[in-house]
Structures are given as C-alpha cells and as structure tokens.
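Inputs:
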Amino acid sequence: MSDPLLETLSVALGSRSYDIVIGTHLFAQLGARLQPLLPGKQVAIVSNTTVAPLYLETVAASLRQHGFVTLPILLPDGEAHKNWENLQKIFDALIQHRFERSSTLLALGGGVVGDMTGFAAATFLRGVSFVQVPTTLLAQVDASIGGKTGINHPLGKNLLGAFYQPRQVIIDVDTLATLPARERLAGMAEVIKYGILWDAAFFERLEQDLEGVLRLEQHLLIATIRACCAIKATIVAQDERETATGQRALLNLGHTFGHAIETLTGYGHLLHGEAVAIGMVMAADLSQAMGLCSATEARRIAQLIARCGLPVRAPWFPVEQYLEAMARDKKVLGGAVRLVLVDHIGQASIQSTVPMELIREMIGRNMSPPP
Amino acid sequence: MSDPLLETLSVALGSRSYDIVIGTHLFAQLGARLQPLLPGKQVAIVSNTTVAPLYLETVAASLRQHGFVTLPILLPDGEAHKNWENLQKIFDALIQHRFERSSTLLALGGGVVGDMTGFAAATFLRGVSFVQVPTTLLAQVDASIGGKTGINHPLGKNLLGAFYQPRQVIIDVDTLATLPARERLAGMAEVIKYGILWDAAFFERLEQDLEGVLRLEQHLLIATIRACCAIKATIVAQDERETATGQRALLNLGHTFGHAIETLTGYGHLLHGEAVAIGMVMAADLSQAMGLCSATEARRIAQLIARCGLPVRAPWFPVEQYLEAMARDKKVLGGAVRLVLVDHIGQASIQSTVPMELIREMIGRNMSPPP
C-alpha cells in the first residue's frame, strides 16, 4: 500500500467515523482492507447489471481470498429502479441466505446502488455493517459520503430513507474509464458544485484543468475527487443530520430545482447530475436577480457547466408545475421554500425569503421553449 | 402537575435522552406537555381502529388547543397488520398532507402502532420527531421504551426496522381499564420477565400483589409499571443498539422461543405476550436442564405465569419446524443460536453453547399433544 497515488481522508463522526480511500487498482486489495474492519464473514455485494460484469468477480474474489463468504445481489440499473420493489429484493435475498446482524452489505455501483444498499443496511435487522464502493464519478464525490441513504416514492425523490454511515468508502478511479461519458459528465456537475459553494480556488483550478480532468488524467482526477471528498467530509462532520441551521443544506445547491426537474420529467430521463447542472444555473441566475452574486460570476458558472457538455436549460413544463413539485420537496420548512443561493463563487447561503415572483420569472427565463 | 401519582423517569442516551411520564388523566395535558418539546406544529396521530374511538379526540383536542395541527392516521388493529402495506399507508398520508422534517409522528396505541409509527418516523424524510403514547400494558412496560421500531416480513418478525428513540413516552394507566383482559394479561408476561431477569425482590412483590395488579389498583399499577420502565431504561442506557456483548439482549428472555411460536402459528393467532409467556416457561425449563436455575425456581416462574391465566405450553408443530424458525430469527450469531437463560430468579445470562439435543428435548417436553 505504498502507492504514491493513494489518498486517505477521514470523516470525523465520533464512534461513527470512517475513512475514504482514493486510488487505483484498489479492488484486488478489498478483502485485505476490509478484514480488520468487519464484524462477520458474510458480505452481500449489491450491484447492478451494468457494473457487475465489469467488477463483481474481482471484488468477490478478493473478499473470498480473505475468508469472506460473498452473496451477489443484482439490481436493474437506473434511478427509475430506486424503489421499494428493489429494496424488497435485497431483503429477500438476505433473509433467504440467513444474513445476520454481524453481516455486511457492500454497495458496488453508482448512487442508486449506494442509496438503496445503505438503506437496506440501515433497516435490515435494525442495522448491519455497510461499505461503499462507488463506481461513478457522482457517487465518488457525493452520494457515497455522508450517510444519506434512501429510496424514491412515486410522489418524490428520496422521501424515504435514513442517515446511516458506512464503515469505509473505497474509491477506485479506474472505474471512471469504463463509465459512459454521459454519466462521467453528469458527475462533473457535483464536482463543480463544491467549487461554487465552498472553494473559489478549486473552482478556478477546474476552469484551468477541465479538459485534463475530462480526459481522466490520473493525477488530476485523484486530486479533484480528493478535494470534493474533503469538502464533503468537513461539512458532514459539522452537520451529520442536516439540521435546519446547519451547513449541510448548502450541499443542496441546485438540488431544489434539480429535484423538481426530475419529478416532472419522471425519474430516469435526465441523469441526476444533469438535473443538478440545470438547477445550479437556475440558482446562479436567481442569485444574481436577488443581488447576491455578480452577472460575471453567474456567467462563469453557466460556462463551466456548459464546457462539460451538460444541459443548462430546464425542460418545458408550466411554471406552476415547477412550483408545485418544489413545494412537495422535503427542503421545505414551515411552508417556505428554502433555497441555496450563491453569494459569490466559493460561498453559498440559504435563503428562505426569496419572492415567489422572482422564482417564477427565473424559471420562465431558464426554460426551453414549449414543444 | 402536582399529581401525587405522577412518576417521571429518564432514559439517559446523551443527546437522544428522553423522559418517560407515568400517571393518570394525562391525555388532556398532552398538548401542554409536548409544546416545548417539538420543533414544528404538524402532528400525525397514528392509531388503530380499536384505540382511536376511545382516545383520539381527547389527544387531538389537547394538541390543537396548544397550536398543533393534527392529522389522524388509522391502521387496522393487530400484529398481522404490522407490515409494509400499512407502513406505506402512513407514508402516503404524510406525503399527501405535506409533512415536513419539523413534523412529528405520535403513536397512540399498542406495540404494533408504536413499532410502525417509530419506523415511519425513522425513515420519513430520513427521520422526524416521534412521541410514544402507549395504550396497552405490553407497550407501556416494553415496546414503547428503548427505540426498537420495525415491521414484520412474511419470513420473520421484526426483520426490518431501526433503532430510533422517541422524544417522550407518555403512559396513562387509565387506558388499561378499557384494554381487553386478554391483552392486559399478555402484558403481564413482560412484567414478570423483568422480575426474572433483573430483580428478585420485584418478582416476589408480584407473587404477593398479583391479584391487586390484575384488579388495576392504581397505586400498585403505577408502581409496577414504573419498576418495569426503570429496569428497561437502565438496560437501554447501557446498550442502546443491542450489541453482541451487551445486556440489552437479556430482554429477549423467552423471545427466541416466543418468536418461533409466532412464526409457526402465523402472526395474530397468539398475542405476542402469550407467545413470550410460553417462551419464558421453555427458557426456565431449559435453564434447569442446563443446571442453571433450580427446579423450584423454574416452577415458581411457570406458576406466576399460569396465575395470570397465560398459556404455558407451546402449540404442536414438528420439533424441526421450531428449530428452523429459531435459526431464521435474528438472534443468531455466527450460526449458533444464542439463548437467554435463567441463572436464578433476578438474574439471566446469554448462552450460546446449549446442546441442540437439550433444546430438542425441551421443546418436546413443553409442547401440546398433536391435534
């Protein structure tokens, strides 16, 4: 493990603290890494039908080599399947194979696999061990860290879930080479988000190095993912359960509009990162309208997103439908919509007194023309 | 609140600490009591179709009087309904009525209502506030305290759930007057359990005062429930999540056999307390066979249970089916069945090396004849 590319970060949460390990060729070492960490020998590897053919056997072999008994559980791929029916499939397999309290669930896949596996780990026998092995950029920089788990409800995203921390997050950037370009770019939306809300210098480095990152140059990739994970770890350590007054809510930059877009289009049409990309452009535009960030900054944000080939315009729906979907979103407190807006690049804040008229106008301004 | 019968206990769990309040005429004070405790104004009162006609309006009126907005959610009554379909009904009502993170779920009913409401509170929007108002003896002395929540799975009891603590437990012993005698007696099984596993003097007081308790003499009732809650609070404070080596597992005295009985008969035929009563007789018999407690003590245990009119013999099923159901139960560690046995009245311990042959013989000895 003297790999010069290996980075380790810690998420400081007292008795629930854990490490994030970032590097290359990590899957063959998984068994050795997890052996001292897990209480029992049974490990269910939850993955999907896209990721499993690529990595499942390497991961399972490494675990078996270190005495673990592995059970593969394969889910269909995609946000549309993040529902109760597939969660049930995980439970059924665990019960059928007599999984115990000392057993572990390992998520091998993207955010959907991680969210569902984590929720299953949180609720099976009232909680078993959980390991995150994210294979998409979006999951590596965001979904796998911080313990948010859950499933969607027909009426809204992530309405059911739990805060449940993993024992370790293992990020092998080699997986990004097999990730479809569209998904890789969707992950870049969350990468850019960290620069906007927390770190102006990181945003500027992205403006400079974007093409190298998109070409998957290993040093740039690891440095970029490390920076994102470090910001997320800092925020999560300060505000594990996203309290009303805490900083964790800042991570929802672009997400209130993004979730509304996903709800209106139905899950699975736009990738989550694509919806967030549009949502961040909308948030920046609204921030400018509110007199927070400058027109130049709003433009730099939209430009960096557009350079990734990400969408910057919301799909057409009546404005009222957007407002309705936002009202149903869980980031509502005492009836007022709470929005994360951009003070300037590198700093965001939560605003709960944005005039409804400004929101309406902004949505109209950022929408595609009707079909 | 200078009621001489009012007792308050604390469950010491750091930032998740909460009070247990025990007394009479408490429902009319609910709103005043909860007002300083809850973050928001929306309260869903989850109850069942048996309890609601008796107490829902009093509880709701008291809450409304203190500015809360209440939403009644009624479930069908009984363990057979502690399943995903009814949990779903709770979620649907919460979503439909725009419940938020600052909202509260209040469980008004027995263990089934409490377990389901708690699990809904643990997982709706990744966790909202939760209040327990148990109306059965069993829920008052056991299920409402300690944060175990969950639902059954067709293949086993409580296989899905979470540890999730309430903000307060409010026990009004007046409710026991309207509780059917059979359910009251079933609750006595858990009362007796505390004496067996923790407190010989309490067991002896029960032997003396049993008839007075069963006649619902108020002072005896409150003293008895208080003693049970104090024991449970002590154990839960030491071992919130039931670790493999912790004392919380002692509370499962009679439950491994009891759960097997419930699984075999199908939920809803025997009451949980009835199954536990039989399970405790079985555990005491096995303890004696293992050379732990004396024959006299095993007899005293069976006698006190029988004096309550509780069943003491297991329903007939092939012994192998009992062993199979026990193996599927979640109190299995590394393949070995862990049983809570009785060292002597007032002290129990966990045994994981009980010879299978002794378990087989004990089941045979304690079973009703085949039909």
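The CA atoms of residues 84 and 226 of chain B lie 33 Å apart. Flag for discussion at group meeting.
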